[in-house]
Each structure stands twice: as structure tokens, then as C-alpha cells.
Amino acid sequence: MTKKIYEHEIDDGFEIYVLIKSADVRLAKNGKKFIAFTFQDRSGQIDGKYWDAKEEDIKQFVPGQVVVVTGKRELYQNNPQLRISKLRLAREGEPNSPELYMESAPLKSEEMVEEVSQILFEITSAPINRIVRHILKKYQVEFFEYPAAKRHHHAFVGGLGYHTVSILRLAKTVLENYPAVNRSLLYGGIILHDIGKTIELSGSMSTEYTLKGNLIGHIVLIDEEITKACGLLNIDEDNEEVILLKHIVLAHHGKMEFGSPVVPHLLEAEIIHHLDNLDASINMIDTALLRTTPGTFGERIFGLENRTFYKPKFTQPTEE
Amino acid sequence: MTKKIYEHEIDDGFEIYVLIKSADVRLAKNGKKFIAFTFQDRSGQIDGKYWDAKEEDIKQFVPGQVVVVTGKRELYQNNPQLRISKLRLAREGEPNSPELYMESAPLKSEEMVEEVSQILFEITSAPINRIVRHILKKYQVEFFEYPAAKRHHHAFVGGLGYHTVSILRLAKTVLENYPAVNRSLLYGGIILHDIGKTIELSGSMSTEYTLKGNLIGHIVLIDEEITKACGLLNIDEDNEEVILLKHIVLAHHGKMEFGSPVVPHLLEAEIIHHLDNLDASINMIDTALLRTTPGTFGERIFGLENRTFYKPKFTQPTEE
Amino acid sequence: MTKKIYEHEIDDGFEIYVLIKSADVRLAKNGKKFIAFTFQDRSGQIDGKYWDAKEEDIKQFVPGQVVVVTGKRELYQNNPQLRISKLRLAREGEPNSPELYMESAPLKSEEMVEEVSQILFEITSAPINRIVRHILKKYQVEFFEYPAAKRHHHAFVGGLGYHTVSILRLAKTVLENYPAVNRSLLYGGIILHDIGKTIELSGSMSTEYTLKGNLIGHIVLIDEEITKACGLLNIDEDNEEVILLKHIVLAHHGKMEFGSPVVPHLLEAEIIHHLDNLDASINMIDTALLRTTPGTFGERIFGLENRTFYKPKFTQPTEE
Amino acid sequence: MTKKIYEHEIDDGFEIYVLIKSADVRLAKNGKKFIAFTFQDRSGQIDGKYWDAKEEDIKQFVPGQVVVVTGKRELYQNNPQLRISKLRLAREGEPNSPELYMESAPLKSEEMVEEVSQILFEITSAPINRIVRHILKKYQVEFFEYPAAKRHHHAFVGGLGYHTVSILRLAKTVLENYPAVNRSLLYGGIILHDIGKTIELSGSMSTEYTLKGNLIGHIVLIDEEITKACGLLNIDEDNEEVILLKHIVLAHHGKMEFGSPVVPHLLEAEIIHHLDNLDASINMIDTALLRTTPGTFGERIFGLENRTFYKPKFTQPTEE
Amino acid sequence: MTKKIYEHEIDDGFEIYVLIKSADVRLAKNGKKFIAFTFQDRSGQIDGKYWDAKEEDIKQFVPGQVVVVTGKRELYQNNPQLRISKLRLAREGEPNSPELYMESAPLKSEEMVEEVSQILFEITSAPINRIVRHILKKYQVEFFEYPAAKRHHHAFVGGLGYHTVSILRLAKTVLENYPAVNRSLLYGGIILHDIGKTIELSGSMSTEYTLKGNLIGHIVLIDEEITKACGLLNIDEDNEEVILLKHIVLAHHGKMEFGSPVVPHLLEAEIIHHLDNLDASINMIDTALLRTTPGTFGERIFGLENRTFYKPKFTQPTEE
Amino acid sequence: MTKKIYEHEIDDGFEIYVLIKSADVRLAKNGKKFIAFTFQDRSGQIDGKYWDAKEEDIKQFVPGQVVVVTGKRELYQNNPQLRISKLRLAREGEPNSPELYMESAPLKSEEMVEEVSQILFEITSAPINRIVRHILKKYQVEFFEYPAAKRHHHAFVGGLGYHTVSILRLAKTVLENYPAVNRSLLYGGIILHDIGKTIELSGSMSTEYTLKGNLIGHIVLIDEEITKACGLLNIDEDNEEVILLKHIVLAHHGKMEFGSPVVPHLLEAEIIHHLDNLDASINMIDTALLRTTPGTFGERIFGLENRTFYKPKFTQPTEE
Hints:
5-stranded mixed β-barrel, CATH 2.40.50.140
């Protein structure tokens, strides 16, 4: 009973503890209600439908509850799916704390804080350093707790911070290899580029877009934060470093059609756009391959033009 | 000698007073320098090249100077062009004040101020009213003096204000015909939608993009102004009216590929996008047709997918 | 029992009179037939499924019948839906006249006729005036009765005429503000631009595309009508005014990829394209917002790139 | 002196008779006028500039004149160009009849008429046969004399008829191989598909677009002709065969963005679109390769996405 | 009992022998399994669902089995569908050989071999002739047995060879009409252009993409075959004819976005691209029209931008 | 006289040794010939025109010659340009060896060989290791000498090898941070991804595309090399590792419209696509910024959608 969702073989029956991540009540073709669940534990997420849901089911089986599912894992058109035969809430004395089931970043929050803090010392531009520290302090809790996206990539607790840390690591190599790159702009830009998601998204559970997220978007929201920081810290907005930092965050989606109001016109803006894409792509593919059988193609990945990825059968020899 | 550029017939010789709008020094194929001028008077603008320019020519014939040109107007591949045979600065006693030659809005600055002020009374939402008044006051001088664009539409003194006033007039009819439209959002959004151009552009003469204009852009610049206004006026940024006003200015280009970081998700945002387009299109076509012979097609209009427009021979009977 | 569909609260049970607008018989997953209805009354339209339909049900529940539905209104993935528990035909003595339930233009047919007639006097170009009167007379009944589209915008009785009248009203302001615009071309073009829909569509009930609609399309169909009118009225087809009028109707979709065989090359063609878009957009958004709860986003609008629109919570203060 | 333009080696001096196809007077950088000529003889066309043109040169060297050029053929950025050292009009007694220099279809007009006439017998649908005969008769002279385009393909005397005949020949094989294809629609559609170009273009010399060509376009112009033919011949416009014939000509550009107001929804429409493309492509490539040295790439072809085509060195062994 | 699927009227009950082409086991909304079948006989293919499938059903009703279906043919949203009421395997003594039910090319394999062989004699370029013969011999069996695509066009036994033969027939007319075309390149290119599909696809039954098909694709696979043939036949890869032959097969999809790594830069490459498209389009439309009622539009065709095609009511008079 | 091109101030006169990189003879407007040069030394490249060129000039001033230019560096529309007043060949005793002037990779050939060799030991997959070693050996000289492109990025001696080494360095960090990535595929794919350019391009001086380069392209050319290597080394082409290696090189342009016949369906293919882009982008921007004055925007970069890049005025404090 301690095995996780993706540790069970396909089509094996099981009884399993999972957390309800989302629960949509819908109408079945026969006119009865059913609940479309997304469950999760630390091995991943899985969808499952609960038929003929009664009003009390709808009331008790809500996001955030830990439940015991009797059923099995199946494949439906290449997507994993949980077939539910029985469902009940986890009781007192059972492992019913939600934290136990939430996927989270491979690094602990403290580790990420530590790693980012080290980087701050390398931002030698005074205005950039002050602005970054100010904003980071203001949103620190959310920054290391929120996912990096509602669904597409790093959609787990701490995903936003972890995505940032991953890019910072790649950036270190970039700085070594390309001496023309400005360290302050690169590090400062990376730390701030997605921090507006702490305003764009509603939180780390049942994540939704906020009104500001929908109507303003995280790209402009972080620009506004820099504007406000300048006001509070008495930094001149016409300072070249400030303008460049704003440009980097505004341009980081790389193209206007992806929501950047300006395209990159700065070396560091171009680099951050590439590193952001690279890290997000690897994470999406990694996540899909985790659930894919070697020698087959996995599920379609929306964020990568619906491409499917092949999981090789051959593995690299252990390198010791 | 008082006739203006476009009041002379094509290929007629003349001596004429005009203002130098821009003067680019370039290398001719023969290795000598020439000056590529744009001249203007109130009948429009015209390009002309001055060959074999000496250093003193380059020094004295600069933007902002009024000059006397001897030459004629010609057509080169459907574009008007001024052939210069002699060129000298206008002297004392001659009409050498630049203002006399600058195209400007059909309305005087005071008239536009008056018309916009009347509209302010109809913005009954308190936060919108206060924000709009605050920003308008801050940029009032530039707003009624700057052009609406460096080149494409309303590229004349006062063009920015005049473009805004024109849209406000159309908006009045929209409000009458579609009762669901919110007056405060519509009027407030129109007044602010392009006011960031006072920061994006360098001024009303020899207009260029500023660094902020190039790297941040007028769409985000006005969003920043609203953010700062909220801070100064103690208006809560989470106020729905504020979020909607920001959304309108951010979305007014209608599509991401035209530089809006978000697309319209609000009735008033959609309407302003349309009215802005309509007024800019009419102005560009009007300007081109002014220089077009009836019964022919005019010059290509860059801002309208390089289309050319036909100027009919038939005119509508005078309607009295 | 006199409340309309959208006057009932979501999830409240009711018994209600509605008109069957369309009725598609389909196969359910269980192999039995069901009817996918679209019902309507003057508060709007709603879809609903009738399960396990017997042959007699299929025969009697057809478009144009008024029925009594017992059931309730629900939300299914943000779209309103009618859950049917009982269904029967309205009887003698009950309000069973279809007209009572059909959405229709806010103006009566006579009012629209009157308004358009006034405009005709302002078309001072003789050939345009004669052509417009001729075609208007030929299709007058359909013009003021048909919808402006099968589904997307102004999809109600009289929608085609109402859409035209709305644009004419906007055009009046355009003529006041932009003196270069030709009144005869603008008004004539607007009245004719969509009148080919009277041939493209099958009628005002259960509207479908005709064979000519599918294979020729309303844009070319109206061009053909002008051609025929010239023949009957002895107007020279090489007359500039006739060519321009044809151009306007051919170009009114603005871009080739939207079905215009030529793009606008005439000021009036460009303007009509914009006004057409503006009026259609407002109508689509208005219709969607009618069914949207304040503070939320409405259904996706196909004709506007599937965007959703936000309905603000704040309302403008009553202005008296 | 009887060699043609492209029979001379590159860089060899010559004296040669050619026809002036077009002559644009332009301003040189040095302020003097020059004439940008396009000359032609039966080996092809070539551009050449005539510097320091005097007023009398401009008056006498006009399109339609045969001239004697002393000069040589050169290559400028892969494009052939004629360097003019002397230029005079051809005199009495010299070969000064324009017809001697105009490129023309490989078939004589009578041969084409004959070939098309044979095809008419195979159009067994009465309405299609009558409409095609009627229009063909109305525009017969122009049809076999005009080019198929101002510049892109079959831009020679008789090109329009020849393009049509070429497609008819391909169509014959299509009919043999695909029995489901309707002979009357296929042949009728091909004969009419481009005949609107007799109205769209100004003639076979110095070909320009007419006002109708620019503002209505040959696709709709031929639809209008069918409409008028139906009126004159008392053919019901609601006849399915008429609707399909119209659809074919309207859809023959294949995609809306290429100017078809409807896309093909009929087997024969789809086929004609393909055959039209195929024949035009072959003609454009053939023309370019004629001027290309074996083993190199020729000039960019505008109508084929600016691609260049390779002319192989190897030739196929004579097959006898 | 000898009538085929599409020889029965819609909604008529029948008992019929068909072959199972594919059989996907899926989960129904009620949690039970069902089988989504595609059946076929020589009149075409049809989908049908078998509800509440037991494990033994799943085991026995697999692709390649002939079965007896009791049921009827229905229309579901314009697509034909088979409603199954009873299903059993065909027994000994019944017509249970799969070949009897497989759609196949209108020509027998031997006829196609013969027709292609005749063409080989006309390929007079020695290297092209040797390469084509070599590859044809290597893949001969598969070439005349495989479909031309998994689903889109010529998706029947022998479809690949038949598609090739059809294009060769069109090519014959092209060679007659356009003398500049090189016979060896045209014929050699056509024969090889799609032969890589014998490696890309898994076979003629239950056709799937192979790993090489998915990750390398038939366009590059045939290029590799030419490379290997050169090695084995001692043909110099730098031979111009070899390079051109490779270019043709690489460029035959016409545009990069359709998977050609190079676009056509050779007359014969351009022609083959057009003929390939033409033949595939006709086949797709033909197949759809076979199942369409005259006077209506058929199913959407994925390979033709989801267009639907109209089947005319009028037929051409028998021509004798 | 030892200063390099870009070490001189703009508009300062100088006498300078440079290498002729390319020399195009063209016709001036006045009918005389001129030579359009590209010169280079180790500080960069610059264009310059030599007017009124005589035949002997044309003969002696050819690519590969070292010349002495008297003149000055100027700016023409933001692009650097060399104004030539005198030109002669460098003589014996002067520094006339071309190598002295060719831009080259910051690493020596031996260093790159060494760095790549170290990587080879980490490719533990036997077939990949053998294929990579085989191809590397075959093209080793060219690989470390050729540019990575004719013009766009790393267009200098050794650029191809240096581009590869730069990506390998980035890849090392990727392998550390993302444990799921396969080392053999990543390193093998990077080394081979562009090696086909040794066949696609003509060499390191006056680089042009070869016929194979134009008609087959480096992406397919390297796939052919792998195919041939498998034949020679007796490696099964159906080996999964071989298929994946081929897929990586075929997919490395990321999208079909950029010339990849397949899009990435493998984690390592996706990563290499990103790293390739990142390194090329940085190199293009770096090169442009070298010639840009701080506080201004540089020249348009063709390979980056014609964007211009800003060179900041502020520099990062020396970090010691």
C-alpha cells in the first residue's frame, strides 16, 4: 500500500493514497453527474473519472483532500488514466497530510534560497542589485513555492524557483564561455524574468490565473514591480541599467506573438530567452518521458507544438 | 513666391521657402558627399537631394533651418521629389520662422485641450478620472504638440492630440449606439492609449525614438505611468477599474504580433483597438491622396500593407 | 411560467415555453438516438439534449415548433445548457406562435426601412443611387428579415438590416469628421455590402447556406446583382462610380484570406471594412456578455479568435 | 546583323535591331534624365539604360518603335543587361515593323482557334457549351492575342490563348486517366478560367492593368461575363451547371490568399487549379533557363517564391 | 448476402461479410470496454463500435479476421458508420479469406510491373537507369503491394505502385507538350519519389509508421538508398545526374514546411511536385465522392485543408 | 601602419594592409566598371568600392591578395565602409601572407582537436563512437578549417570547429544539470550536426555553396555520411542508436520551415537544436557589437530577423 501511482504496473489492481489536485463536476451523457479528478502523488499526476457522483461525494471529494482509491492504472489513447472502483477520504491515523503527496522541486526551498543568494553577490551593478534584492524580498515566499506555470512546465511546488535556479546554472557556463556577456544583466534578468508569476497565478494548489494575470500578464507585472522599486529606492528610471533590466524581462518571450511587447535588442535579453526555452523544454520532455515505456513515443506535449517524444530502449552504460 | 510646394505644378520651376525637416549626409557613388533632405511646408513634405555638398553646406543646412530652394517638383516612380538647383538659408527680413512651415493639426492646441477637458467630465469612475487627469496634466504640453508617430500617421505638430480627439468624436457615436459600453473606460482608455508616445518619441521636430521608446515601448510606458499614478494618488492597484484601464492600454494594438502583450478581453478594449485603426488608416490615406492626381493610384502606404489607393475622378455634387 | 430562459437562475428547476430552432438527430454511445436541440426565446438561445428519442419524438420535435420543457439551466464548461427532464409540444390555447420566441432586432422592420430610406436621399450620385434603390427593392423583404450570419453575429430575425443600420449610424459621424469621404460611395457601399446574404442564406429560420452561398459566396453574389442592375437600368459598366461601388463590396472583408478577391484600394472601401468589423465585434461581445456573470469571463467567441471577454463587476454610475 | 539578342555571346559588341517594349524616363543621381528601356526581339527581352537623355530622345524613343542599338550584352548580378553605346530609330527600308520583334506563342492564332474549337464539341452540357461559345466569341480576338500576364508567365503575344491550349492538352490525359472527371466542366472551366484577363489587361503591347483589372480583377470579371451571358441566352442562373462553372472560375487560384473568393469544393475546380499552376510554372522556368548557362543557376523567378533554377550540363541522348 | 457495405442503402438492416482492418480497445464512459473497429470490403471502409466487449471478444476480433456483422449502415455527422447488433467470426466454408475484402489498386500487380518496365527503357541516362533498376529490384514486392499512405491517399493494397503509375501516365503528356523536360530525370524521379515508403510504413495490413519512418522519414530514406546504390554500383556520387536525381526526391514535397529539406531548383523537380499533388488530390476527392449522395457535400478531407467537396446532381451525357 | 581596420577612428585617414576577401566587378551608373571589395584583417571585415577600375586592376585585385589601401573608414547608413583613395598590391618584403589577415577562431586548430578528442572518450555507445570517429577522421582537416557558414555566423577560418567546441562546452553543463540526458547521443550529435558543411561549402576562402550544397544541403549530406559509415564499418542501420543519431542531425534545425525534414522527437535532438541556436545567436550579436559604438544600436543582423542590438554604455565593474 506504500507504492506510488507510477510504481504500479499498468492494469494491476491496487489500493492507493493520493491527493485530489482538481475536481471538476460534469454532466454525463446519461444526465447524471460525474467528477473528473486529477490525482497526484510524488510519482506524478493522473486523471480519473468518478461516475454517478452523489451530492455528498461532490461535497467531500474536493481539491486538497487525501483519498484512498481502489482501482487500477490504464492507458487510454496513450495517456495514463486511473480507473476508480472505490473511493473514500483518508482517515485519522492514515497518511492524510497533503504535503506527502505533492510533487515538488528536487531542491528544498532553503537550498534554492541559498543558491540564489550566492548569485546576488555577483550582481555588481548597484541599481540592478538593489532592485533585484528588493523584489526578491517582497515575493520571496511565493517565489520558492509557486509552480512556474499552471500546467505546461515545472508545474509543481517550488517549480518557479527551481526553473530559475536551473537557468542560473546554465548561465554560469555561458558567462565563462562568452566574455562579452554582462554578468549583472544576465543574473539580474534571470532572477526577475518570471517572478511576475507570483502575481499572475493564484498559488501553489489548484493554481488559476488571477484577474491581473489574465488582463495584464506576468511580463508587464514584473515591469511594474521594477517601476515601483525604483520609486521606493530612489533609483532614476532613466538610468541605462534600469532600462536594460526592464527590457530583458519584457523581451524574454523572444517574439511578440508569444506576448513580449518588445523583441530582444540586447545580447543578454537574447540569451535569457534561449535559456528559458531550453530549460522549459527539457522539463516538459523529462516529465512526459517519465511516464513513457522505452521503445515507444510518449504523450503529445502542448507546449512543444504537440510533438511526441521517443524514449529509447538503449541506455547509456553506467559510467563510473 | 508665396505658393507652397504642392501648389506648384509638376515640372514648373520655382523659388520657394521651406523648412528642413531632416538632413542625412551620405556618400554618392562618385565618392562625394550629398545631403538627402526632407523639406516641408504646410502643404506637405517632399524629399530632395543636394549633390556635391561641401563641409560648410553640411554645417549650415541642418534640420530646423528655413531655406530658399530654387528648383522644381518632379515625380520619381510615383513619388514626388524636389530637384534642387540652388539652395541658401533664409535671411533676416524673410519669413524664416520654422513655425510658419510646420504642418500641424487642423485644430489649435487650445481647441483640443478644451475638447478633451469636456470629455473628462463624463468619466464618472473616480479612480479612472483621477488617473487620467493626473497623467494628462503631467504630459499636457507634449501631448498636444507631439506627432502621433515618427512617420506613419498624424506625423505633424499636434498629431498626437488630434488623433486622440478624432477618436473621442467617433467614440461619442459608439456610446450612443451601443448602450452596453462603459463611458469611463472608453473615454479614459482613449485619452491614455497613445500618451506614452510622449516618452517614446524625442519631440515634435526631427522626431526619433528614445532609448526607452526602443527598449520598452509606448504601450508599457503608459502602463508604468498608471502604476506610478496609483502610487502617488493612493489608488489601490487591485481595484478592478484600474486593472481594466491598464488592460485597455496594453491591448490596444489588438494582436500580440503588433506589440500588445495581451489581446483584448474587454468590450471597451476591442472598440478602442478598432477606432484607433480606423482613424490612423483614414489619416494615412488622406495624406497620400492629397498628393495624388484624380484618376490615378497614389504612393504605396507602408502602414497599410503597402497598398496604393485610387483617387476618383468623379466628385460628389456640392450638397447645400 | 412567463420567465424566459435567461431570467431563471442557474440550477433552478422550471417549466418553460421555447421555440425549437434546430434539432439534430444523433447516435448516442449506447446506440440509441438522441436529439441535440437548440431552443430559443427572446432572452437568447440554449442547447439541450433529449436522450432515448423515439421515432415519434423525432417526427414531432422539429424546428419551428413551440414546446414546453421541464428541466433546468446548467453550466457545462462555461457554456449554458438546458437539462431536459420532460418535453411536449405546446397546445392550442398556449402561447404557441413561433414569432413570440424569436430573437429579433431591437428595431422594427418599418423603422429600419424608414431609416435606410432617409439615407437614400443623401446618395447624390445618380448611378449609385439608382443601383442601390433597384437592388434594395428587389430584396427588400429578405433584407430586413434575414439574420446577418448563420451563427456568428446578428444571428436573429432582422439582423441583416439591423447590422446595416448600425453601420450607417457610425458612418454619419465618419462623414462629419473626415470631409474627404465621399457620401454616395460610403452610404451606397454600406447598404449593399452584405445584401448578397439574402441569396447566400436560406432564410431566417433554420438558416443554412444555399448552394450558391457555398460555391459563389455573398461577396461575388452582390457583385453579380450590380452587374445585372446595370444591364436593366442601362447604366454603363465602365462608369467610374459603378466600378468603385463594385470594388467596395468586393473588398469589404479587407483581406484576401477572409474572402475578398481584391483588397481595399479606395478610402471608402477601407472605412466600410473597419465599420463592418467594429459593429460585428460589438454585437458578438454584447451577446456573449448577456449570458456572463459579472466578475467572470464569458464563453469563447469563435469569430474573435476564440477570445473570452470579461464582464466587469463595477458599473458606471447612472448618469442623469 | 541578323543575329538576335540572345544569339550574341556575352560581352561581344554588336549592332542590332530591337523593339522598344517599355521606356521609363527617370532622374539619374547626377540630376540628368535617363531612359530605362526594355527591348525585345524574338529571342527574349532585355533591359538597358540610356544615359543623359535629351528631350528629343525622350520624344522619339517610345514603346512600339524599332531601334538600332550599338552596344553589347552584359551580365549584372546574374541578370542580362544591354549596355548601349549608340541608339537610333530604324529607318525606311530597314526591318522596322514591330511584329518582327515581338515574342509570340509557338502556335499561330488560327491553330489555337482550331484546337479550342475541336474541344468545344466535347462540351456536351448545353448551358456550359452555350455560355462558353458566347463568351469566346465576344472576346475571341483579344483571347488569342493578349499575353497571359503582364510579366510573370506567358508574357508574349498570344500567351493567353497558348496557356489555355496547353492546359487543355494536359486535361485530355486527365480525362483518360480519371473517369470520374466531368468533361464539360473541365473543358468549359479551362477555356474560361483566365479569359477575364482580356478585360483586366490593356492589350498586347505595353500591357498595363485597367481600372477594372485593378479594382475588380479577372476572377470576378469572368464571373460577371457568365452572369451577363445567362441573361442574354436565357439560361437560368440557378441551374446547377451554371453555378458549378462559376465556382470553377472563382476558385481557380486555389486559395483565398491568392485572390479566389472561394476555395475549390469541386473535383474539376481542384484539377484546373493544379493544371493552371503546373503550366504557368513550367513556362516561367523554361523562360528563365533559356537565358541560363548550363551548369549554373538562372535568375530569381518572382512567381515561384524567388527561387532560382539550375540548368544541367548533361543533356539527354538524342532519342531516335 | 453478397452485397457489399456501400451497396446497401443507408439504414437498411443487413448481414454482411467484412474484414477487420483495425480494432482499438477502449474504455467506455460507463467503465466497460468496447472495440472501435474499422471494417472493409472492396466497396470501401467503415467504422463501427462494438459495445461491452468481453475478453474473449477482444482476443478473437483482431485485424486480419473476416467477420459476419449483423447491423446497418448509418450516417453520423456526415460520416458513414456501421451500427453492429451481432458479430461473429466467419467460419470454414464461408468466404473467409482476407484478400477477398481488401480494397486494391484498379490494376493488377503484374500490369503495373509491366507498365513501369516499359518506362525504364526510356530512361537513357546510364547512372539514373542503373540506380532506378537497382532500387526497384530491391523493393519490388513491397512497392507494388504497399499503400501510398497510412490513411490519406491511395490507402489500399497496391496503392503505392498505382499512384506511381498514374503519375507516369501524366508525365507522358508533359514530355510531349514541353520539349525542354528531361525524360530520364522525370521518369527516374517519379519512380523513386515515394519508394522510401516501403521502409517508412510497416506493410499493407494495419499499416503503421516504423521507427525509421517516424524519425527519418521516406524522403531521406530514399536519398539513403540512392547513396547506397551508388556505392554498390560504383557510380560516382559527384556525378551531376546523381545529384539531380537526389535533389528531385528530396524536393518533391515542394516546400520545406511539408518536409522537403530543399525546395525545387530543377524544372523536373518542380513538375514532379505538381503531378504528385494532382494525383493525390484527385484520389482523395474520388474516394470521398464515392460515399457522397449527389447534390450534397461529402466528408471533410484532412489532406486538403479539411475542405468538403460537392457531388453534382447532373451527370455528363453518355458519350458514344 | 600596424593598426588594424577597426582600430582606426572613423573618418581618420590611413594607409593599411588588408586581405581581399571577395571582389565583384560591376557596372557603375556611368557605364564604367568598378570593383566592390570586401577586405578583412583580424579586426573584422569591411566593404569598399574601387571606382573606374581598369582591366589590369580587375586582373590583379583578386580574392586572396594582400593589398595596401590608402583611404579612411566611414559610416554609411550605420554600416562601416572603406573609402579607397589609392590601392596597390603588397610587395615582397611587406607583410603579404594572407594568413596574417584572416580572422580565425580564438582557439588554434590543435586545441580544438584536443578538446574534441577528449569528448570522444565519453561517447560510450559503441556504434555512435565508431561512426563519429570515422566521419571525423574523414573530414578532420576541413572540419577545423572551414567557417560555420558562408556569412551569417562563425564566418571565419576554423569557425565550424569552434562553433562545435562552444556547443560541446555548453553541453557539459547540460549533462550535469539534467541527468536524463544521454551523453553519447548528445556529444555524438553535436560533433556531427554541422560537419556536412565541409561538403556543402567550397572552402575557407571565398566560400561559396557547392552544387551538392545547393541541391542536397548539409543536413542530408551528413545523413548520407552516416549511411556510408555504417556500410563501411558493418554497423546495422536498423540499430536504434544509429537511427537516433541520424534523427538528431536531421532534426537539428528544429522546424521543417528551416530545412529539417523531421522535427525533434528526441530529448537530445531538442537540446542540440537549442544549443546550436544559442551559440550562433551569441556569435552574430558579438560580431555586430564589436563594430558598434557604446550607447547606440548596431547594424541589422539578417540571421536574427534583421534585429539591431544595443551596446550599453555602462560596463560591468572589473571583477577581481
